[in-house]
Each structure stands twice: as structure tokens, then as C-alpha cells.
Design brief:
Length: 275
């Protein structure tokens, strides 16, 4: 058998794969045996070991179970993500996965939790064209986003409140087909029993309470975290003295925004103009 030589120092992904191979061989397991233990094909295991495939959070957790390595692979996976995500965001996502309520406010683009793969890919490819990230990092961003959306598909999904500035639905991203599919996703989201979707119209003017995107998480113990980011880094705030005023401003924003029915009607109206 032709076994590909690995260079763990070539990239974080290669180091991850080399660690998988080392632990597997120490136990005398074949790739087929490890795959059966984890619910993956031997081809998938081979692709991860050789660095051809980016590991996912699900795979990392199953590796930890298979090898009895606590959360070592999960932590390594999160470290890899630091290469394609803003500082502070991986920490936020860790809490987002456990939140019982998620409150979002976004300006300019559809929030990540609701982006379709095609919409997300257009944004990532645009970043590649600008030289901001590599093609590989673009693929990793989209993959990570799709994994992150699983937070909405839990057995007991969180209550999600979303307020979007009108610019989110007015700004064309990609082709009409991409936007139509994205609008379908928004309407489907609004129809769920655990979600509220509202549009903050341009007519709100100075009554709009935020000038930057805002993420608020309510945890099972009812503590509330706020996450905000600049162009270069993100920050997770757990201090009640600074988080509660943001929560109050969010409630004020909801009171001024369109109702969900009126928001869905606006989405349908905007959609007519792109067909």
C-alpha cells in the first residue's frame, strides 16, 4: 500500500491529520476500522489524515470518543478555525451552541445563521477576489457556517429573534437565483414556531438603536452574553453592567421594527424586483 508521507508542520490541518494517523496506528487500527467506529468511510478518514479534507466539528468529537481523548480533537479543531475566523468568534460559537435564546441584529448582509450555502459561497469568493483570504479558507468558512447552523436543528432548538436592517434584503448578493433561494430561506425561518423575524426599515431613521451588528445569547442559567465585532476582531462580553443596556436597546429596536407579517411582506415585495 502506498502510504502518503505527512508533514505536520506544513499546516494546522496537516497536523490534525497526522495526529489522527498516529493514534490510529498506535492502536493497530486500519482506516476502515476507525471509520466503522466513527460512522465514516475509510476514504473520508484517509482524506482527513492526509489533509485533503477539512475536519468538521462532528468528526472531531467522534475522534475524541473513538480515542478516549476527552476534547483534545475538538480543541484542536477550534484552534484551526482561528485561521479563518475573527479573534473571539470561536469562543462565541461555543456558547451559541448551548444558548436557549439567540438575538441577532445585522446590517448589510443576511446573518450567517440564515445564509444559504450559495449565498455564503458568493461572499466567501468575493473575499478571495479581494485577496483577503485564500480559496481554501473560503471553503472552510462556508463549511464552518453550515456546521454552525446545526445549532438551530437541535432536539430542543433555541428561540431565535432576528432583526435585519432593510439593507440586508435590498443588497443583491450573487445572481437572482441565489437571492431567490435566500429569500425562500428567510420565509421558511419566519414560519418556524421558535423564531421571530423582523425588518428594521430605512424609515426608522434615528430611532434605530444600533449602528453595528449585535449578537446576544441567553444561556440555560439565564445569563446573557453579548458579542460584537470590528473589522479585525470580535469581543464576547459577559459583564451584566454592559450587556443589559444592549439587551434593553435590542428590545427597543424590536418595538420600532416591522412586525413579522409586515417583514415577510416586504421580503416578497423586494423579491419581485429581482426576477
Amino acid at each position: 500500500m502506498n502510504i502518503k508521507e505527512l508533514n505536520p508542520d506544513s499546516s494546522p490541518r496537516a497536523a490534525f491529520g497526522a495526529r489522527v494517523r498516529t493514534l490510529r496506528e498506535e492502536r493497530g487500527w486500519t482506516q476502515e476500522q476507525l471509520g466503522e467506529e466513527m460512522g465514516y468511510s475509510s476514504t473520508h478518514i484517509s482524506s482527513v489524515e492526509t489533509g485533503r479534507k477539512m475536519p468538521t466539528l462532528r468528526l472531531a468529537r467522534r475522534l475524541d470518543l473513538a480515542f478516549g481523548s476527552d476534547d483534545a480533537f475538538e480543541r484542536e479543531w477550534r484552534e484551526i478555525r482561528h485561521g479563518v475566523l475573527l479573534e473571539g468568534f470561536p469562543e462565541y460559537v461555543g456558547y451559541e451552541e448551548r444558548a436557549v435564546e439567540i438575538r441577532l441584529y445585522e446590517i448589510g448582509i443576511i446573518p450567517g445563521l440564515l445564509q444559504t450555502p450559495a449565498y455564503a459561497a458568493v461572499l466567501a469568493d468575493s473575499a478571495v477576489e479581494r485577496g483577503a483570504i485564500t480559496s481554501e479558507q473560503a471553503d472552510e468558512r462556508v463549511t464552518f457556517l453550515m456546521e454552525r447552523q446545526q445549532a438551530l436543528e437541535r432536539r430542543r432548538p433555541p428561540m431565535v429573534f432576528l432583526v435585519m436592517d432593510e439593507s440586508c434584503i435590498r443588497r443583491p448578493v450573487g445572481s437572482p437565483e441565489v437571492m431567490n433561494a435566500q429569500f425562500d430561506r428567510l420565509v421558511e425561518f419566519a414560519g418556524r414556531p421558535n423564531t421571530v423575524l423582523q425588518v428594521a426599515p430605512f424609515s426608522m431613521g434615528e430611532r434605530r438603536t444600533f449602528n453595528l451588528p449585535v449578537n446576544l445569547l441567553t444561556m440555560p442559567d439565564r445569563s446573557v452574553f453579548a458579542y460584537a465585532e470590528s473589522q479585525t476582531q470580535g469581543h464576547l462580553d459577559r459583564e451584566a453592567t454592559s450587556v443589559l443596556p444592549i439587551l434593553t436597546a435590542y428590545h427597543q429596536l424590536q418595538a420600532e421594527a416591522l412586525s413579522q407579517a409586515a417583514s415577510v411582506a416586504m421580503i416578497h415585495e423586494v423579491r419581485k424586483g429581482i426576477q
